[in-house]
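idk why but the lab printer keeps eating my pages so im just putting this in chat instead. protein + adenosine-5'-triphosphate:
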Amino acid sequence: MLAYLRRVRETWMDYPHQPGEVIGGRYKVVRLLGIGSYGLTYLCIDSETGMSAALKQAKPSKRARAVKLLQREADILQQMSHRCIPRYIDWIELAKNKVYMVSEYIEGSTLEDLIFGQEQRFTEKECVLYTLELLGRVRYVHEQGFVHMDIRIPNVIQRAGELHLIDFGLALAIGEDPQEVFPGSMIQTRDPQRRDAAMYSDLYDIGHFMLFMLYSSYDPVPGQESAGWQEELDLHPETRLFLERLLQLGPRYEDSAAALQDLGRLSRVLQDEV
Ligand SMILES: Nc1ncnc2c1ncn2[C@@H]1O[C@H](COP(=O)(O)OP(=O)(O)OP(=O)(O)O)[C@@H](O)[C@H]1O
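predcted complex ->
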């Protein structure tokens, strides 16, 4: 019963702001974009500039922990300056555990929308080109001394033909101990290949990003049992090798610069083929 009452109370506490509400005297809520484990994100209009903005609220029921995590995210985002990473805009503190981070809103379609919503099919060449673009963004993050730790198709948005990387909520400084930052349960459920705050963790995620794109044009043969990607996908041998290294099935890349170089070469090989 106590657990039930706690859940009911959390639902009240985390009741989202409604469209039309103005936060911090400036940001008018258009709609709720999503509710994550530690935050609620809204699309807002900045009444001073008329521009749209993404406003992330620390989840009230998660109290100081959510505030601390949002502060970390804001600190990291402030250190990024790249046209394909949301620009940090503002920090609003209305009460002790009532805080918000404002960042640039990236209007477009996530790769998840493109693959599963719009059912777009990507060729191997396109997949390699998209991954090359994404890896360029990720390399920038690594050069700033951070790993993103959450590269997934819902966190990559295509806007005006360019891929943008969002959601730095799990980002860490390279070499930082994730256990000191996040609750143990958040770390233990991750694949061991992506647990450390190291570039290979992001590269492992990019391997899965590539698989999602490659499977968009895979048609299963009726009646055939499902198998692993190595059997199901008909790939250029170099694409296969590259994926194996990302997914740590072959010698893993320790540094994203080396992966970027190999992927650049692979894309040229594929372009020359036809
Ligand atoms: N800067 C942004 N521009 C556009 N959309 C954004 C931006 N930031 C977040 N979103 C969208 O808002 C929604 C919620 O994002 P958020 O990162 O808060 O939580 P989540 O990814 O759903 O949860 P979690 O990170 O806990 O798994 C997502 O659909 C995401 O695409």
